């Protein structure tokens, strides 16, 4: 059976039209008005496959994920030049931090910089502080360092932003900021990312540890970072404590240790 997350429903494929997300953040739902599976950020590219009653069925370019998004959150493609490399930022009405803020943008949102004004970059959504943006040609190089930028972000099932993120969303955000491909869910990450390592230790920075329905990034030989419902936030945790706690809670042992 094909995975509906990654393979479009032929019955809903009535067109193919390129678009991008123009809302700061939108839910990618299993059905129109249904459960959130993941989220899309401003500037994410998509292919619209059909549209009905204010909902667009689409496939996201960044990970192939299929689902339904409110059509009002989509617009024409604008060639992005930069991505938000800060945990979050604002676009302002003018090149002045005292001017009205127009939209909030999360880490990895993509924007088209059209001009510069002092310490601000001009974009179609407003003026964004230059220090919060990085050219797409200069991705980050350390996924764990990117994940740490989101320390304290609230846990949100299916979340992909600074305003709420889950375990697989954190890993995807960290890898995408480094221009590394990454699927959206932990079960897909477990089979597609890196190479499998023998269990029992030898943990290195940027290794991935998987449990049933959970994933974490290793920061050093003794510590990991993850978005966990245990504290409802992105947090550091000793590896040994996390392994013992998760198993004691009934969620089983580590299912895979993979190295990027």
Automatic annotation (TrEMBL):
Gene3D superfamilies: endopeptidase domain like (from Nostoc punctiforme) (3.90.1720.10). Residues 136-260 form the NlpC/P60 domain. Pfam families: NLPC_P60, SH3_16. PROSITE patterns: NLPC_P60 (PS51935). The keyword Iron-sulfur does not apply. The keyword Hydrolase applies. Keywords: Hydrolase, Protease, Thiol protease. PANTHER family: NLP_P60 DOMAIN-CONTAINING PROTEIN-RELATED, PEPTIDOGLYCAN DL-ENDOPEPTIDASE CWLO. Belongs to the peptidase C40 family. This is NlpC/P60 family protein. It comes from Sulfitobacter aestuarii.
